[in-house]
Structure prediction request, 138 residues.
Amino acid sequence: MSESDCIFCKIVAGTIPCTKIYEDEKVLAFLDIGPISEGHTLVITKEHFTKMDKCNSETLSAVVSVLPRITAAVSQAMQADGYNVLCNNGRAAGQLVEHIHFHIIPRKTGDGVFGRWPSFEYPQGKARELAEKICAKL
Ligand code: 5GP
Ligand code: ZN
Prediction:
C-alpha cells in the first residue's frame, strides 16, 4: 500500500472523515470504524510510516507520550476495568492498514474479547541462543 492509497493518510488529510478524539502537531487519535469494544480508539502518527521499525524515534516518542492521557480518557469514559494497547506490525502480525497505529481497546472483566495467547516453554539453551541472535542485530 503506497502513501497515496493509505486510508490513514487520507484521514489525516481530511479527505476521509473520522470521529476525532485528539490531535496535535504529530499525532491524531480517532475511533476505530470496526471496534472490538466500545471506545476502541486508534492513535496514529500524522506522517506516514508503515510500521514501528520504520518510524523515527522522535515521531514514535510523540505518539507514545500521549498514550497515558488518551488511555486514561478512553478507559475512564468507558468505565473500563482495563485496556489493551496493541500495535500490529506486518501482515503476519495482523496489520491490515500499513500506517503505524496503536489500538486502545477498553476491557471489562470477563468480556471475552481476547483469550490468553497460546504459550510454550523453550528447551534447554534455546532462550540464550535466541537472545544472542537478537543482540547481534541491535
Ligand atoms: P490493523 O489490523 O491494521 O492493526 O488495524 C486497522 C484498524 O483500522 C482496524 O481495526 C479497522 O477497523 C480500522 N480502520 C480501517 N479503515 C478505517 C477507516 O476508514 N476509519 C477508521 N476510523 N478506522 C478504520
Ligand atoms: Zn499513511
